[in-house]
Design a protein that fits this description.
Number of helices of chain A: 6
Largest sheet of chain B: none
Order of helices and strands of chain B: HHHHHHHHH
Shape of chain A: rod-shaped
Distance between the termini of chain A: 107 Å
Keywords (chain A): Membrane, Transmembrane, Transmembrane helix
Pfam families (chain A): RskA_C (PF10099)
GO biological process, one term (chain A): regulation of translation
Shape of chain B: globular
Strand order of the largest sheet of chain A: 5-4-7-8-1-2-3-6
Oligomer: heterodimer
CATH architecture of the largest domain in chain A: Sandwich
Number of strands of chain A: 8
Order of helices and strands of chain A: HHHHHHEEEEEEEE
Number of helices of chain B: 9
Number of domains of chain A: 3
Protein name (chain A): Anti-sigma K factor RskA C-terminal domain-containing protein
InterPro entries (chain A): Anti-sigma-K/W_factor, RskA_C
Number of strands of chain B: 0
CATH class of the largest domain in chain B: Mainly Alpha
Structural class of chain B: mainly alpha
Chain lengths: ~250, ~180
């Protein structure tokens, strides 16, 4: 007798869950032993009800039963038509074990977080895309030369370019063959307008003396000349050191 | 309605035909009422409540009867018994009913329902049952009439479920044999 055969009595007594019921029904189709026993068992089972005594049915019962059925059915239908969210949730709750529910919540949170970050990423891509759509134009180019050409830094020089992209303007300064810096020294870029200097940032060149700096220009900022000085540290608000490079 | 077969009636009930439900009531109320009456140990009030639930079940059930499912009366009583078992499982009377049952006396039925198998009479089943041992009868009654599950019976009998199953299997088989002998 197989394991499935042991379910015969449970099947007759209708004690199997739907899944096991289906399994046993399948089993009945090819287990001749069970099929034979099943027939005997159901015959015996269905004869059991005959062991009853006939009762006199109360006259009023029919009306009571019919009223009950139709009123209950009406109530039930009304209940179903008015969507009950609590019932829905509690049913949902019953569908899942606590672990499954926790997993689902965790997955939902993860999904939301990922979609959110994906959305942000998309926006960023879109924004950067928009930036790329607007072309960068060169407004003007200034040539830079060594301020003191006698000092053997004859090759020192470069260029300053003012760029415009949409509303934004920026300055790019590129210099080559700059003298080596000592200690905390930095090169500082100044923008000159009517003798007034405005700080446009500091930079340090590489081993070969090449340096580059970009500076975002305010909308209304204008200047005539560019000067680059060597400053003892990065805290200068006015030039303290010697001018090394300037625009002509 | 009167000339409709049970299967047709039940199809109409599935389609919410009230007259079909009333016709089913007229045909089977005596059987259903007597069955539930026995199941509730003769409690008229509970019997009424369960009978109402049985007809509500028939009215709202999605499942329909097909002649392939066996005799209509067997299907109907399976539905009835399921409602009974559900009812007592919800109710505390289940534990109160857990006593040895009185032997049931054979009775004559003056007006048997058409669908009831003619070969077997109420007398015969009671007689066949009386040939079983007390413990066999008890087992059958606990399962069929008291609605205890196999696991519950195993606990009450202090036996493994497998043993209870095979004892019940043998008891039902013997009952069937006694019925066949009487039938000859």
């Amino acid at each position: 007798m197989g394991r499935e055969c042991e379910n015969l009595l449970s099947f007759i007594a209708d004690e199997l869950n739907d899944n096991n019921k289906r399994k046993f029904e399948k089993h009945l189709q090819h287990c001749t032993e069970c099929a034979k026993e099943y027939e005997i068992m159901t015959d015996a089972w269905h004869s059991l009800y005959l062991d009853i005594e006939e009762q006199k049915v109360p006259e009023s019962l029919k009306a009571e039963v019919m009223d009950f059925v139709f009123i209950e059915d009406e109530k039930d239908r009304k209940l179903k038509s008015s969507f009950n969210i609590n019932e829905w949730f509690s049913q949902l709750y019953r569908q899942f074990s606590p672990i499954a529910a926790a997993l689902i919540v965790a997955l939902m949170v993860l999904t939301i977080a990922l979609s959110f970050s994906n959305m942000q990423l998309r926006n960023e891509v879109k924004e950067s895309g928009q930036e790329n759509i607007v072309p960068i134009e060169v407004l003007s180019t200034l040539s830079l030369q060594a301020a003191d050409q006698t000092e053997g830094n004859i090759n020192t020089g470069g260029s300053a370019v003012i760029l415009q992209q949409g509303e934004a303007k920026s300055l790019v300064v590129q210099v080559r063959d700059l003298p080596r810096l000592e200690g905390s020294e930095v090169y500082q870029v100044w923008l000159l307008k009517n003798g007034k200097r405005k700080n446009a940032g500091i930079f340090k060149p590489d081993e070969s003396g090449a340096g580059i700096l970009t500076y975002e220009l305010a909308q209304n900022l204008q200047f005539d000349q560019i000067g680059i000085t060597v400053e003892p540290d990065q805290y200068s608000t006015e030039p303290r050191g010697k001018k090394i490079v300037g625009s002509s | 309605m009167k000339e409709k077969r049970d299967e047709e009636l039940m199809k109409l009930v599935n389609k919410k035909d009230r007259r079909a439900l009333e016709e089913l009531y007229d045909r089977y109320i005596k059987l259903i009422y007597s069955f539930v009456f026995k199941f509730t140990n003769g409690n008229a009030e509970t019997t009424k409540e369960i009978v109402q639930l049985v007809f509500l079940k028939l009215w709202t059930t999605k499942s329909s009867y097909h002649s392939s499912k066996g005799k209509f009366v067997n299907w109907l009583l399976t539905v009835t018994r399921n409602v009974c078992v559900d009812y007592i499982r919800k109710d505390s009377i289940h534990t109160q009913n857990n006593q040895q049952m009185n032997p049931h006396l054979p009775v004559e039925i003056a007006d048997p329902v058409d669908e009831i198998e003619k070969k077997l009479t109420f007398n015969e089943v009671a007689a066949a049952k009386s040939k079983l041992s007390t413990s066999q009868k008890r087992l059958i009654d606990l399962l069929y009439w008291k609605g205890f599950s196999l696991t519950e019976i195993a606990k009450m009998e202090n036996e493994p479920v497998g043993t209870v199953k095979s004892r019940l299997h043998q008891s039902l088989k013997q009952l069937k044999k006694h019925l066949e002998v009487e039938d000859l």
